[in-house]
Design goal:
globular, alpha+beta, 7-stranded mixed β-sheet
Length: 153
């Protein structure tokens, strides 16, 4: 297995679903990127064939919320092998950070990774809990994890 040599090697990957559809995915790595997520991104800057994968090193109970978002999202909770554990469909956008109305939040789900996609993305239409997503990269998910653990932990 090939090992990444720098962060740019792993920043952009592709993920395939069981129907064979491919999603262009950016990895959110580290506390700053994972806390920012898609906040402030306008619909014209994030397309239906794109996703953001929150890449965590450990399984934890995670809840996601939607402050300063400008399009509805599907939030997909994944285990260490990219198996779908839970899908929160069509979470409402919430421009700004004020709590009136309350900012939408997901339930807490124990998971390793979290994938966000536009709620109208064809990639997400047929997804089901229990299915595995497939990483399309020259690196394995374990090699990416080890690189991040070594360099960003």
């Amino acid at each position: 297995n090939k090992l990444p040599s720098n962060i740019d090697d792993i920043r952009e990957v592709k993920i395939q679903n069981q129907q064979g559809q491919i999603l262009n995915v950016r990895l959110a790595i580290g506390p700053y990127e994972t806390s920012l997520g898609l906040s402030g991104i306008t619909p014209d800057k994030f397309h239906e064939n794109q996703g953001l994968l929150f890449f965590f090193l450990y399984d934890l109970e995670r809840s996601f919320w939607m402050p300063d978002t400008y399009f509805n999202l599907d939030i997909i909770f994944l285990d260490e092998n990219l198996k779908i554990l839970f899908i929160e469909k069509n979470i409402s956008a919430h421009p700004g950070r004020s709590e009136n109305p309350p900012i939408p939040r997901t339930p807490q789900i124990k998971c390793r990774y979290v994938l966000e996609i536009k709620s109208n993305a064809p990639f997400g239409l047929g997804l089901k809990v229990g299915e595995n997503l497939i990483l399309q990269s020259e690196f394995t998910i374990e090699n990416i994890r080890n690189f991040i653990f070594k360099n960003y932990n």
